[in-house]
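Meet today's protein:

…
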Amino acid sequence: MSKITTELLLERAVPRSTRLRKIETLNLSKLQLKTGDLDPRLFSRLRHLQKLDLSDNLLDKFPNSLTLPDLRVLNCNNNKLEDVTALKQFPLLEELTYENNVYLTLNDDYKVMFLLQNLRLLNGKDITKLANHVRRVNSRKLTSKVTAHWEKFFRDQLPEKYTAEQVKSIRKKFLKSVQTNVVYGPSSLSEFTRWRVKMIAEEFLAYSLGVELNSDTEPEEKTDENEEESTESPREAAEDVAQVGDFSSYISNVTVTPSKRKRNHSKSSPGNKRSKSQANTEEEAEDVSAEPLHFLQCHSKGNSREDFKTQLWSCVFEPVLDSGARKDPIVSSSRTVATCGGESVCLIDCETGTVLKKYKVATEEFFSVAWTTLTMVISDSRKKAHNILAAAGRRGIVKLIHVAADFCYGEIKAHKKPIATVCFSPTQETHLFTASYDKRIALWDIGIPDCDYNFKASQLLVLETASIPLRIALVPTCPEQYLLAGCEDGCFAWNIKLDKGQKSRPFEAIFQFPDDESMTTSHRVDGLAFLNDDVVVSKSSKPGCIYLWSWSRSFDAKGKGCQRTMSAVILAELEWSTTDMSYLTLSTCPAKEYVFCGDEKGSVWMYNLSSYSTAWGSAKGKRSERRIPPTQVLTWPELSVNGEQPPEILVNNVVADPAFTYLVVLTSVNITAIWKKL
């Protein structure tokens, strides 16, 4: 038997080498090697090894720590291998052969296809499409079955407040039951199915109940580790094509004080002053309109339950695919919402509070998410509509996620500075606007991916801004012609019509707003949305200032020239918090004519403006003389997290679904609150 030495490695290198770190190809075949001969300390010096031939030896398994970070091609033919899971330590492996290992079966082929995300050739055959199916479709089906099994047979067995012993007991029962009862695919793959089911179930328990994975479980892939990206190397970029995870942390150890569980809000009459509209008396607490359903801590850095610092910024409800081209806003959204903050993007079922999927990039801080629906050609040449989620943030990169396939299929390096917000055109499904700290708003055509997820993105337009754009909105009556943006130093409008030759364009108009006794263009606009086809709602950095104004009466489309100053025709002003804190943004629910805005105390101010819209629609509609008070203010319940109160809570964003069934509240303390309207 030949023992492996430094001299042997140098001699067996192709071509022969004088230093281990220079070896890229190594032939160690026909040496009667056993597993114990593969010394991890010696192999760890082969930092640039790309091709390794270990055929015709006596290996029964691989050591777990060979540390060959650049290995691409591995030949293990004619050995005695019994297990393949240790091969996951070679994440860049593209070609693998292990023919004539009598103990390996079809189940092992499926295991390596799942574990090795870059594998293209297995035993000389192209397995790209099959591997994609195993990693995405198979995983999605099994995850659904595992979750359903828990919900049906085990969820009610666990008390609301459980002990470590109770968790340990139910964990053992659940793992045994789920591996026995969850069946999928042909019987010839039953071993692979049990292996994946156990892995998925362990992940589910770890994320849902905080159960640590035991050392006696099967080795698991840690998908997060390969998601720390680099914008430099194509090789590293390939490693970042991360799968969307399926579970995340739920604050099961958060309790709501029972006396405050009464759907707290206050209801203002038109004559109430602000101090009364925020009151939280027992009488007002009984006047119920919504109840808090769930409080989730699903964006924690490193899944830490102690993380109350991660800021949550953006959320948007997923469109329903069969809603008739989304013509009816009431039926155009599901109860699934995408949220972002910190290093992750989550998909949440608002009714159950389940975190359905989680996409994570360790070096990113996500600021914005947006949905579009693309008609894609699937494998059998049929066309089918699929929802695509775009996510962007501090790195200036847009991630494109095919949610149904649990797959981030591409990225657009849109800006060199952070992206503050993104939005899709409502009329052109592939048109995406990105607003960046580089003082530019770019329009992209993201293209439509083919069945292998090949796509081509192109930049169509660049809008130059005078200051950092914070919020953007397309004008509903002409979304292909005008875009409005709230910026650090004002509110601006651009002509975005693509038949104009100019690819880089300055703003066409800047709007003036009241400032004490005069009008000014210089103010931060950190909230911007349309309440209907004409009424714009914008929030200023001026304390307590939310304006409603008319787009059609403010913007003079017939005027000539760019960078014109126009006075916003104010219809009304909403009564809001007196804080001068910025970046607490607002949103609207046009179908129900509601405006929402959170404050610096964790409260949500809600304005039902349906009784005002008729008057505003009149050409002679005049400004309301007094501020419109909130219809309701939902106050933050008293939460206890591990027996302690969370720190000061700011509501960064609050969004309702189109039917105003759910209200999602994003905070500065890494808590997503979901309310349900009664």
